[in-house]
């Protein structure tokens, strides 16, 4: 059977540029993404073990969800640097969206937790590393 997987070519990282309450939402792509790591939610657990736990085995129940972080690496451009700098100093929560090549999207709220770093080396290129702390659960939409 032939693989149904897709390549990452064509993925995008965007920021909501329309005001809250305005529909449809307007998304503006931020720079030239080289690498996009979507949010990575995880769930913690609470230990409910007691002295009569069956089979002397620990018992756990699910607890809070930690929405995690997203990370994007962009090619350095003056425009991308200016946009990222503005998002870093902005107060409040921002909306972001990752676009997948098959039309699916992942939308999440968050804020930048670090000012972008620029990496450079001999015969290398400058990049911007953009960490985003996610707040709330990301929403995945399969698209078409």
Which structural class fits the helix and strand makeup? mainly beta
- Total of DSSP H or I helical runs spanning 4+ residues: 1
The coarse overall form would be globular
Distance between the termini: 24 Å
Strand tally: 10
Specify the helix fraction band.
under 10%
The biggest beta sheet is recorded as: 8 strands, antiparallel
Secondary-structure element order, N to C: EEEEEEHEEEE
Rg over C-alpha atoms, rounded to the nearest angstrom: 19 Å
pLDDT average, as an integer?
92
Low-confidence stretches: none
Strand content: over 45%
How would you characterize this protein structure?
- This protein is mainly β and 144 residues long.
- The chain starts with 11 loop residues before the first strand and ends with a strand.
- It is globular, with a radius of gyration of 19 Å.
- Strands 1, 2, 3, 6, 7, 8, 9 and 10 form an 8-stranded antiparallel β-sheet that branches. A two-stranded antiparallel ribbon has the order 4-5.
- The chain has one helix spanning 78-89, and strands at residues 12-16, 27-29, 33-37, 42-47, 60-66, 69-75, 94-99, 105-112, 117-119, 127-141.
